[in-house]
Amino acid sequence: MSDSYSEVIAGELHISPRQVQATALLLEEGATIPFIARYRKEATGSLDEVAIAAIRDRLDQLEALDKRRAAILKSLTDQGKLDDDLRGRVLGAPTLATLEDLYLPYRPKRRTRAAIARERGLEPLASLLLGQAPETDPWAEAARFIDGEKGVSSAEDALAGARDIVAEWVSEDADARARLRTIFMDRGVIRSRVIPAREVEAIQYRDYFDWQGPLKDTPSHRILAVRRGESEGFLTVRVGPPEEDALTLLEALFLRGDSAASHQVREAVQDGYRRLLGPSLETEARQKAKERADLEAIQVFADNLRHLLMAPPLGSRRIMALDPGFRTGCKLVCLDGQGALLHGETLYPHSGVEAASRAAGRVQALASQFAIEAIAIGNGTAGRETEAFVRGLDLPGAVPVVMVDESGASVYSASETARAELPDQDVTVRGAVSIGRRLMDPLAELVKIDPKSIGVGQYQHDVDQGALRRGLDDVVMSCVNGVGVELNTASPHLLAYVSGIGPQLAANIVTYRSGVGPFRSRAELKKVPRLGPKAFEQAAGFLRIRGAANPLDASGVHPESYPLVESMARDLGCSVADLMRDAAARGAIDPARYVSEKVGLPTLTDILQELARPGRDPRRAFEAFAFAAGVQKVEDLEPGMRLPGIVTNVTAFGAFVDVGVHRDGLVHVSELSDSFVKDPRQVVHVHQKVTVTVVEVDRERNRIALSMRSAPGARVDHAQPPPPTARKERGEPKQRPGPKQAFNNPFEAAFRKS
After folding, report:
1. What is the value of pTM for the model shown?
2. Which architecture does CATH list for 120-303?
3. Distance (Å, rounded) from C-alpha 584 to C-alpha 267?
4. What is the residue-averaged pLDDT of the chain?
């Protein structure tokens, strides 16, 4: 890594160059972000995962910039245009935009109007005009260039060609482009208009039919909304500053005096801006706005996904799971404490009194037969009705009944993963099994599904897919390694996200486990085919073996630190197990005694915390949640009702809340709090339990407006006006549309599923 990189990144992230260099070296050696953040704190100065990911991403950008710089230098050398001055400017260009501006005059071009004018010998006339000498007579000078054989039939033809050349010079001037770029970004306005005669088809974009806003302040969801309307052929979108501002800047740069030649240059400047420079910078500004919108949307998606994956697990319990349905019945499965399928059948509790009676008997019998400890019910079609049916039964013991979000369950049930896990079952059984396993451990089950199918994103199909995939993979890996993985029971999909493992090694681990039996120690991992020392170093600390001979194998203490812990125990005259059990013994340890060149206080602090709570699950304790009784459909809602709900999605403009009526209601950002909130994530997160007030119910369109304020609908001090229409993406799979969709309130008038 170049030293200049570390200086640049350190300045941007407000950390030391040494931290950047150490992190870059670890990344170059193949270390993962979770491993670096957890086990290499001394090297990085205790940088967290966010900072490490930022260093990684910025390094990639700078390396891409240098790669482009090298390509440009080669091109300029091949053209014979590279002198010392140009080389210095290319090497010193700090951004890709600056670099491309320098290269633009030398970039191979198609046959432009200026190129044609040069072929006609008009470049000397263009230079004469640009000089703008007071004594220059443009018409007299142009007459000297009349040449019928070259296609210049008049002085006006000559002047037009010369102006084309000047216009291209103006558009390619690096200083002009840099200054005008600033105006585009600072004073640029984004405007959208409906395409005539498409108003009816474009009704979901009606708030953008005649809309504009400052580009730098426009929220990401609006940028993505108008871009989608444009791509679908409903809107025209333009971006740019007031034309007079741009022309004033350019004329100040290129005009000198008020001579006849200056009038020709003014005409060329105006043409150059409108035909060349303006459109070029508009494309660039649109791309910059898109990149900013993508980053914001991806960050919102990543935050939502993290909260969903880290939802509290019920734990190892015997589960009865029901995938509800009316006409097709409810698919019921019984699972053991490890999530293995014990039994499955279909019940029809909503098909008349007799069928309901039979279904009740079967649920009671199966609950007793399999010693069921909890019942999971999917929240799709007939979910609330099935919940009411089950709650009304006389079940043995205090069996909790829990509604489970089934978003993406159909994607899993039709996947190769599901077919491999449950090869002899159909998709309905697989879906019910997934619902039950989600209650036991949301993280372990949701890693089997593409995050885009879980339904917590915003415009996820419109953003850069590579950046989205990387961001979401970072979140999944962070959550999996943050929680830790039980080596002897984890699925290959969960193991694949463990630091240093990946899909192939995960499959090898499962194959070894199936053939040899459960792992008895972390050290035994080294016997897995193709799992070498580097992979072991990266993975071992995040894998757990309950009941292992060495109690540290069930903790987050890395094997490389085992000798250190054993030394602590020897110094206290006890065993490692005693040290983990005895708080007084741990309290007698002076961490400073064990500081060395390789191990500092940050790692020692982590070790002592882990000894106190070995293998601790960082997720919150599970708490049962119940929707309001008697409120099962939109028709049951009335303005003013106070209801419990679960946050299902957080976007830039508000939060969507499930109140148990198969339609998520929207709490607009202006209704999230009594005080002004700019970012909804400051107030709520996915899977959070909230209490909301029903503000409005549009039964015709099945749309619900909710509020979390103490006085819903009252004015919020300093609040901004509600934003115009933006369309929400749930990410629900098309294979299973179901009735559980997100709809808008009057502030957000046009959402639809992809």
Report:
1. 0.86
2. Orthogonal Bundle (1.10)
3. 86
4. 91
